[in-house]
Amino acid sequence: MGDRRDSSLYNDDLAPVPAAGRTWTRYNYASLWVAMSVCIPTYMLASGLIAGGMNWWQAVGTILLGNLIVLIPMLLNAHAGAKYGIPFPVFVRASFGVRGANVPAVLRALVACGWFGIQTWIGGQAIYAMLQILWPAAKGSGAGLWICFFLFWALNMYVIWRGLATIKILEGVAAPFMLGIGLLLLWWITGKAGGFGPVLRAPSRFQTTAEFVRFFIPSLTGMVGFWATVALNIPDFTRYARSQRDQMWGQALGLPAAMTLYSFIGVAVTSASVVLFGEPIWDPVALLGRFNQPVVAFIALIALLTATLNTNVAANVVSPANDFSNLSPRRISFRTGGLLTGVIGILLMPWKLLADFSAYIFGWLVGYSGLLGPIAGVMIADYFLVRRCELVVEDLYQRGGLYEYAGGVNYRALAALAGGIGVALVGLLAPPLRWLYDYAWFVGFLVAGSVYAVAMKGARAGVPVTVGEKT
Known about the structure:
Blueprint: H1 26-37, H2 40-52, H3 56-84, H4 88-91, H5 93-96, H6 102-134, H7 142-162, H8 164-192, H9 196-200, H10 209-226, H11 228-233, H12 235-238, H13 244-277, H14 284-288, H15 294-316, H16 318-327, H17 334-347, H18 350-353, H19 357-386, H20 411-425, H21 434-438, H22 440-456
């Protein structure tokens, strides 16, 4: 990195990772995805499909397909992070401009704040459930739930204050443990329900193919939307990759396998709840409260709590902390950005986003996918079609360079982003176009990416004429 970097665009947290600091192997990336996937929101994703009417193989197949689809933009956006050692908010400057990048960065950050709030609320519920097991007199205490919520919030803030090295340790150690506990819970509850036979024989509640398709399409969009957040900020992690091969194989092995396995656990356990209680219980914390087995419930809740902490810090704090830092690198450090994430996460009232499975999947997941799909479309079109994977890293950190465009803003990118979001979300206002909303991520991605590629055709602004640098 030369001496021309602009202090308004640079700090140590946003700086390219030098070769000596790129030590993450394929195991680190595979375990990262295992630990991020083995969490209560993944469980709820699967159990929500069962509660909505799918049978076990329809639910697992929908989740597997969604994760195979989202793996494609994940790996494409990961390339720049591994090649140049830059985080997401710096990478996105290439397409949106050094100042315009704040728009997609803030949109991504706000979604992450919502996820942080959701995970923290779930973690607080798990702590409260454990408290009731240890101290039955705590049942029915509204204040107790809120105290547990803020205790878990404080624990998350402590971990992020310790830095990214702590995250790496947490993910590597916790991943195998989380899978073991999940499998133990599956074995125990299916045994109570009479084995896998009664659990997996539960039929789909859809009477016709048309009924299934109406539920399947927005559900698939929700599955893609689940990881559409990390599909954008994956450079925040791949900037530490030892090689492109390590990050690609680690992610390809970790994401689909971990999501499918843990989703199956959620599907099977929820189906078992139908056999045992006559209704699908999609919230695992509520389900564990139905059993009079304190030791089993306590161990399971500790596992869920640990998994939630891992996922929350890695998936929902790293990115917005960097994004907020990008707004004012001189004033906002990674730590300060993490604290901002925690505060905004509370203000977004996560308890309302988890009101029921419909609000969770069709409201939250599908809705924000219409914001993030267009960003991914612009980024991928810019990096692969416009720049042919070549960036000039030094200019990403200075004013007046290749990525200055018009006053630091690429208005072509903003127009493409606005067009993609508008088309993706218009179905909320126009019922005949509801199908556009049901496909929100896909529609937004294709529209924004196509508009951007056409708008940039023949435009030399921001396109390097020399070979990109690897810092």
